UniProtKB/TrEMBL annotation:
It comes from Zea mays. Residues 101-251 form the Fungal lipase-type domain. SUPFAM superfamilies: alpha/beta-Hydrolases. It comes from the Eukaryota. This is Fungal lipase-type domain-containing protein. GO terms for biological process: lipid metabolic process. Pfam families: Lipase_3. The gene is LOC103641787.
Amino acid sequence: MQEAAFLHPFAEACYTGPLLDFGRNPILFPCAWVYRQGVLTPWARRRRPALDGDNWWRGHAAAFLRFVNIPPKALLKGRVCQSKREAAYFVVVLHDKRTVVIGVRGTETPEDLITDGLCRECAFTMEDLDGLVNEQLPATTRERVISTFPHYGHGGIVESARELFMQLNGENTSSGRLGFLSTLLGEGSECHGYKVRLVGHSLGGAVATVLGMMLYGKYPSVHVYAYGPLPCVDFVIAEACSHFVTTIICNDEFSSRLSINSILRLRSAAISALSDNSPADTAMIQKLARRILHVNRYHDNGPDDGIIQGYADHTRTADTTVPNERQISHQIPLCNTELDLHNTQNGFFRYNGSSASIDEHLSYEGISSGHDMQIIPLDGADSGFEGHQTSYREIPVEPPEMFLAGLIVHIVRQRRSLFPLWKCWSIQETEPPYKAVLAKRENFRDIVVTPYMFTDHLPWRCHFAMQKIVEAQTPMRRAHSDPPVQQHLV
């Protein structure tokens, strides 16, 4: 927890744009952003490192350096302007800690939102899993990873991690050119023997997790601290990453519970709750269901017009046929994560409105667009797609469940006592406001709707909670510690 609290500012400092400055200083936000960007000191431009995509006065480098309070020479490399499926990052060397810190920025730009939205499952290649099948991990973990292949992850995050891996460690064997990290950490270099720490908040934490999985095979000193990341890998990979990934979740933050399946379950629960608690007002429920489930187009076009035709056009252009048993959509390393606008407009593939209930309709529509739904034909593989409209029954299969990776530390807010203040004043002074507990990853499969689900995701909330936990642990360690170090030195 101490190292996680120490490295958290590096993850927060990656937000060099105006977004977090507006949250920290809602009134004086323009002044705070201009000051942090170094606009008032343009003469210091040449002393700041040049980052990929930075502005003329190198303001993003200035904002990062000012937030973490390190000298300009400590910032070696970085990128602040990126396209979709790319991540902004910063590489810092802390010689006093003998540590190389790689900070990955979370969601701040529209390109980051696109990466967040490309959430269909993507198959990992054996090169991606190289860090999990080498000799650094226990034999049982390696065997489980290999025996359960293929494995899947969040498509946008996996592709961002692959691109960032090439930026940091891409090597050209034909020309003999070494990658950036190989040059920095190689034998005989200035940082040889240094530890490697990857940090990131929200989307950055998820990208750092997958990137650490790729780097762990070559750099055994890699450890990832992900603060409020998105679920991004399947269960087996999440368990295998427990040796080098620490995921920290602040109370009820929503991002660590955000996935396709959790959204579908939340929507189904909301509609079921409305239908159970308001049986009299059926007209209101039906109107709400139409808006949520996007069935207006279906009722306008009729049961056989547009929707089934759109699905038939989609299946005729598919590259592979569908076998009798369940098949996963992605079987090649490159993730097909582009949005299928045609099927998205249709809303779902097939819906028998005369007999299906709201829950059945939800299951068909919610897991529908593109590869988010696989179709299992029941009439045999020889029938082909031409007779799809009349000879096939469709069973929707949910996409693979995504989980948080690594060792999960859940920071929970302590409940205050309801007794009067004068009766529990002594208790309130001794109890810390937060506590950290080890949690199971299965506990974060569903979204928790609370008043604090969005505010708990703010990075300074997590940093404040970790500081309080470390401060509460320090007196306890001193009370149970050995005699002072001076006595041993004597």
